[in-house]
Amino acid sequence: MGAGVGSFATKFKYTYTVEEYQDEILVDSSSGSYSESDSPIGFLVLGGLEYGSQGFLTGLEVRYVVAEAELERRDVKVDWGGFQVCVTARFKFK
């Protein structure tokens, strides 16, 4: 069992192209892009089990995260929160 604080790096990149046609002939074209990022601080609680013998271990980890990134130019919120489950396998070399 454990608890912690983490930074959740979030980056949004948007690229676009606008084309204008008249009578099926391209008359104008423009393109552009922008990006935005946020690194919110979030909280997490985790726990796990591990079992193994003779150099091979398997495990299960469960984590609950509370974090939300805000991208202001597009008025978008990215919710990092929720449960995450991970199955692990490890080999020990002597």
Provide a brief overview of the structure.
By secondary structure, this protein is mainly β. 0% of the residues lie in helices and 80% in strands. The chain is elongated, with a radius of gyration of 23 Å.
Q: What keyword list fits this structure?
A:
mainly beta; four-stranded antiparallel beta sheet; 94 residues; elongated
How does the SSE layout of this entry go?
Layout: E1 2-7, E2 10-22, E3 25-38, E4 41-53, E5 56-66, E6 68-71, E7 76-79, E8 82-91
Antiparallel strand pairs: 1-4, 2-3, 4-5, 5-8, 6-7
Morphology call: elongated
Order of helices and strands: EEEEEEEE
Any idea what the radius of gyration is?
23 Å
Largest sheet: 4 strands, antiparallel
End-to-end separation in angstroms reads 28 Å
Instruction: Determine the strand fraction and express it as a percent band.
Output: over 45%
Describe the model.
There is one protein chain. Strands 1-4-5-8 form a 4-stranded antiparallel beta sheet, with no helix packed on it. A two-stranded antiparallel sheet has the order 2-3. Strands 6-7 form a two-stranded antiparallel ribbon. A hairpin with a 4-residue loop joins strand 6 and strand 7. The protein is elongated. The chain is built from no helices and 8 strands. It is mainly beta and 94 residues long. It has strands spanning 2-7, 10-22, 25-38, 41-53, 56-66, 68-71, 76-79, 82-91.
